[in-house]
Structures are given as C-alpha cells and as structure tokens.
Design brief:
Structural class: alpha/beta
Strand order of the largest sheet: 6-5-7-11-12-17
Strand content: 15-25%
Length: about 350
C-alpha cells in the first residue's frame, strides 16, 4: 500500500496462496453476476474470504490514516474482480471507501480538475440489425443531456464514427458517453468491439477517435464488459482508452441489465454534479442503489433526485429492488479517480 505521503506499507498475505485466491475470485464473480441469484446472498462465502485476504490486513493502517479512497493496481487474475462489492463487517467495501483501478500508478494522471463545467457528448443506439434492442438507451441519453448535465445527445442513425469525430471537432466535449452493445473477446483486438450505428469500432481502432485532442476527462462506456481485458489489452476498452489519452473511464465488468445500467448511469451524473470527484460520485450512486434509494416500480425509475418514465420493455409489475451487487458492482472507474 502506498499512501498520499508516498510511504510504502507492506503486508504479507498469509493462510492462502495464489491458486486459492484466484479460485475464490472466480466463485465470487459467478455468484455476483448470476441474475437468478439477485434475491440471495450466495456471494458472501467467497467474498468474505477475499476480504480477509486482500483488505483486512490493511484496515488498521487505513483507519489510522483516515483514508477514504482506494486505488488498486491489480494483478492479472484480479482485474475483473468487482472489489467494491466485497463484503466487510459493515456491509460492502464501497460503503467505507471509494474504489477505482489503474493499470499502473506511473501511468496515471494525478491532477484534479472539477469537471462540472465540461459538456457531455452522449451517443448511443437502441436498435440493432443483428443484436437485441436496448430500450433504455434512448431514456438514458435524453435524461443525461436534458435533465442532469449540459451537453448534446445523438441516437441511432446519428451514432456514427463520422459524426462522433465531427462533434468532437466542433465542440470541446470533456465528457464522452457511449451507450450501446460491446464485446470483449480475449486473444484478438480485431474481434473486440463497441457497436456504433453503422459499424463496429474495434479495440485496435480506438486511436482513430483522437481522444487526446481535445482531451477527454471522462469516457463513460455504458456497454457490457468494457472493463474486461487480457494480457494483450489490460482492462479492455477502458485500458485502451487510457492509452489513447483519456483521463478516466467508467466501464463495466459483465453483461449489465438494461435496467441496472439506466439506474446507475442517471444516478451517477446526478451525484457527479453534487460531488465533483469521479470515484466518489460512483460510490454515492452505488450507495443509493444499495440503500434502496434507486429502484424501479411499475413504469417509473426512482432515484435520489427524480423519477423517470420508462418504456414498456423496462417496466415491471410491482417494485424491482436494485440493491444486489449484480445491478451496480459491474461499474468500475479506471484511471484518474479524481
């Protein structure tokens, strides 16, 4: 552990080995990401083991230094671990700390900038020729740009690489938000993609976006499995975006439900306007879901600031509780946490 003062604190993990940690990580992932388990706490057994091995040895030092923000530079086998959802003695880890990931400390921009003055370019697709529709995307983009943040949105036919580049040239958008399908396939960058309206944007094509000019302070990938990676592409699209010049990326670790994505994203932008630190805004959004302040009832999404009308495909009969980690723990901030 390295503190803000630059002091290195070392603890040796005892009572286990690499194989057991990786096995528990896999079990925890399977339990958290299984939608059929959202009415259970089946993740507790493996999650508590991971907490005891990875976090508990540091707790005394964290509390003594009044630390509230954790930035993890994970080993390869742990990068897809939803660490915010680790169960502690007081609930989930995110209930005590804001959590983010970095590929390495040396490659992370440490400066702070208040991003509330930045505009958002929000683009996405709700309809696809060969993939399932995403009915929440239209609501997501409209809510963000019309109610929560200053910016512009472009849906479906206007969500093209050409228009994305054109909009970036015409306006200095400091936040770029993409809501669509995505797929990360380990082993080949050419088969991993973000789905635009007219084509697939491959992982090895991210440089074409020129995200460094003008600089993007925050890239939000409201799409499935955009934080997954392998040895060739650490942290997937999110890691590649950092290499392409993005300051921070909000991405996902697994196939997220349309309802969970809409709930988390709208609450995140609300919190970001109140708490202009990216990792803390994500934490507050996740806490709101954990505490039941964000939920869906019949044809409306309720969050801590407003209620939003939902399309029929996202409506529920009765109340949908979104407090299980399946709905919120996939969302991970990578890069500069501030």
């Amino acid at each position: 552990m390295v503190t803000a003062e630059g002091k290195s604190i070392r603890h040796r993990v005892t009572g286990t080995n690499r194989a057991r940690v990786l096995a528990a990580t896999k079990e925890f992932q399977l339990e958290v990401t299984n939608r059929s388990n959202t009415n259970t706490t089946s993740y507790l057994n493996s999650g508590k083991k991971l907490y005891q091995w990875l976090i508990a040895p540091l707790e005394a030092d964290l509390q003594a230094r009044n630390i509230h923000s954790l930035v993890f530079a994970m080993d390869g086998g742990l990068r897809s671990l939803p660490i915010a959802a680790l169960p502690t003695k007081k609930g989930f880890l995110v209930e005590q700390y804001s959590v983010s990931l970095v590929p390495s400390l040396s490659l992370t921009e440490a400066r702070y900038r208040d991003i509330r003055s930045l505009q958002v370019l929000a683009m996405g697709a709700s309809e696809f020729a060969e993939q399932a529709p995403l009915p929440g995307v239209q609501v997501e983009l409209a809510t963000i740009t019309e109610q929560l943040w200053n910016g512009q949105s472009f849906l479906n036919e206007t969500f093209t690489l050409k228009n994305l580049k054109a909009q970036r040239r015409q306006h200095k958008y400091g936040i770029v938000h993409l809501a669509t399908h995505a797929e990360f396939k380990p082993g080949t960058e050419k088969e991993s993609y973000i789905q635009l309206w007219d084509r697939k944007l491959r992982l090895n094509e991210l440089d074409e976006l020129q995200l460094f000019d003008p600089p993007v302070e925050l890239l939000v990938l409201s799409a499935c499995r955009t934080a997954l990676g392998n040895q060739e592409a650490e942290l997937g699209f999110a890691g590649s975006a950092l290499q392409a010049g993005v300051d921070s990326t909000l991405a996902t670790l697994w196939y997220v439900s349309d309802q969970g994505a809409l709930a988390l994203m709208t609450e995140f932008y609300h919190q970001l306007s109140q708490v202009p630190i990216k990792s803390e805004a994500l934490r507050q959004a996740q806490l709101a879901m954990i505490k039941g302040q964000v939920y869906i009832e019949n044809n409306r999404l309720y969050n801590s600031s407003k209620s939003i009308s939902l399309p029929p495909k996202l409506s529920t009969s009765g109340k949908l509780n979104l407090s299980h980690p399946y709905y919120w723990a996939a969302f991970t901030l990578i890069g500069n946490p501030w």
